[in-house]
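Late entry, written up from scratch paper. The run itself happened at the end of the previous shift, but nothing got recorded in the book at the time, so transcribing now.
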Amino acid sequence: MSSRSFLIIGLAAISLLLSSTRSGAQVPHTVIGQVFNSDDTVPEVGELSFEAYLVDVSNNNSHSETRTEADPGNAYGNGIVGPGWFEVECGNFTTFDWSDGDSLMVNFSNSINGEQGLLAVLLFADQEPQITADIILMEPLPDWSMSMDDDPDPVWAGQTVTYTINYQNMGDGTGTGVTILDTIPANTTYLSSTGGGNYDGQRVVWTLGAIPPRGSGSISLTLRVNSPLADGTVIINVVHITCDQEVETSVSQSLTVQAAPAWTFNLFESPDPVAAGASLTYSIFYDNTGSDQATGVVVVDTIPTHTTYVSNTGGGSYDGQRVIWNLGTISAGTSGFLSLTVLVDWPLPNGIQLEDVAYITCDQGVEAISSQTTQVVPDQFPPAAVTDLMASEENHELRLRWSAITTDIYGNPETMQGYIIYRNEAPYFTPTSVESIGVASDTSFLDDDGGAGNLETNSFYLVQGVDYVGNIGDNSNRAGEIDYRLPQTSSGYTMISLSLDDGITTLARELGAKVPNCSAVKVWNAEQRGYVSVAFKVNNVWHGSASVFMGHPYYLFVGTTAESLWTLAGQAPPDPSFDLVAPTGNDYNTISLPLSSDIATAKDLGAAIPYCTAVKEWSTKSQAYVPIAFKVGETWFGEGAVRRGYPYYVNVTNTSSWPPGKRSPQHRHLVGAAGL
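Output as recorded:
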């Protein structure tokens, strides 16, 4: 649109037409008219000015010189001849001789309010119009010029494209309330814009305000092309510019899409929140959801600040700051997982957040990014407890082993500082600093000062894990050692209880093979009132398929040249239970004192067993059972000590089970066995 409002006066629109009297000859052609402001007021003398020139239509619309209202060469035209009045004489132009069809152009301007107007008059040689016309001035208008470029073009499906939009006011008037609108084209997703653009979910709107004549600018819009898209899909983007003066224009740009890969790309972390000093694992999921394979695929994850790299899966390489996975070619529809583990620094101030960012790229220029923010909190959760503490005897010293703790009590990843070792003569003791005998940084500890090899002292152990910030875990399971006396005889028996579980002994022949110089294993059969052989050795080969049961007594035939000890080491199993029978109404049974028992004397043991009248223990020296407690009437006698985990021989007058409320089907099966 033109930059001026104008009134075109032609022969058909002349208010007053005076016929020419000189046909075919050039005549002065006087044009007279009155000018009004847009509010119908008349400009005062000195406010109104004009510039006039001829247009040679037959000569590429070339212009003559410009004459003004103050031009002294206006012999017949006096310029502004009164308030709002003007007079122009066409014959005074000297650049060229006008002919039929040429035009007189007059531009009017009010220096006070800036309003403008244009008069155009067609000239004919056989007519001399003296024209009286009313010219209405108007405010000058803007005139918009726009262009738009896209980059790249063509574009891969899934790739980003940036539109650069250039605009300029080519008119003489200032455009106010200028707005540029771009409705996001189909098959694209908005990403960003420059120049203050505001995205409302469908359009980007730039509110530019006032733009003066010749004012210009540039804005940009970045979109992601959707994927997958068919090869050759055309995306058309149309941009409009408008203003308060209702002058507008638009520009469009076509973009061709090529088939390409597309990414679903997600980053996950665990745990969140994470404790200072703990391990943090990031999991990365990628999926090529596009219509073509991706080549040269690379995934990059920059290690967050306040962390230390530990490891990764998927073959990534760590360069000191980033983990980089070179994945090569990923076909359409192919997905996978990668992971990265870091150690959170300790200590850290409260409120620290870890920011992790990962991205995926490929040769086709299609990329995706994902990030996670993880809150760091003081580690208030202790590590999980050790559940597989095991003890083994090594040359009269005790070796403790267990599995590493990797989580806290809620299953979150945990970083350990070490393990506290406790020892006591009682299996189920409450640990204090007095019982602490050392700290292990790994999962093994050798106690060279315990009770192994000492018949008078048994040693039991537990461990507690300590995490990186000092939280202490719960007590572990119990493990320890018990020593049994082996008789000095070429052939004699000793009584032991399988009170600890070494994790490998399940058969009677395996038990016999563990005890030095042992050649037979027997169990008491109360119903038969005698011992039944369950394993024996012939020519250094053990025979017998009977099982053994934790916590139960066994009768071993051994031969040694000197009295010695055998150390049983392992985990503390659940307390055993015993079926006590009295087929004749007054019969002996074998039991073991459970490790959790607090019974200290023989008479207390007898009193605790239903229908019990006597308690005996085996003497390796005399090779016989020796009474240590008995009952007279309702009174028990016998102050001798009993020890947890050791076997005893008890007389009962009626069938029962002990400890009360427990049954032992395994033991019943064993007692009823007829031997091998």
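The mean pLDDT is 87.
(Scratch paper discarded after transcription.)
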